[in-house]
Amino acid sequence: MVKACLMFFLLQYPQVFHGQAPDPEKENNYKTALGHLEKYLEKSSYIAGDQLTLADISIMASLSMMQVLDYDFSSYPNLTAWISKVKQEIPDYKEVNEEPIEAFKNWVKSQRDK
Description:
Number of domains: 1
Structural class: mainly alpha
Order of helices and strands: HHHHH
Number of strands: 0
CATH topology: Glutathione S-transferase Yfyf (Class Pi), Chain A, domain 2
Low-confidence stretches: 1-5
CATH class: Mainly Alpha
Mean pLDDT: 85
Strand content: under 5%
Distance between the termini: 36 Å
Largest sheet: none
């Protein structure tokens, strides 16, 4: 699970800040990490325990950054369900995460359009 968070930085940073094409090896590593998370969520409703914890919030923050790249999680149904559930359970999620991510996404797009 930590690997999924770290892979975000390796995968996304060059694309967002340097306009580079996705690196196939890093993309495959990210997908592998997501696969581990998907499998873990087959047996558990949350990342650490039976209720929302800081672990869920941390992983969600990292995964939500992938919205900047319009990353498609639909191949991971357990993960997609978990994302939807956690978005509902994190207090003020829209204001503290979703809206800032959207603003960042718009900024990235404006930089690419220059």
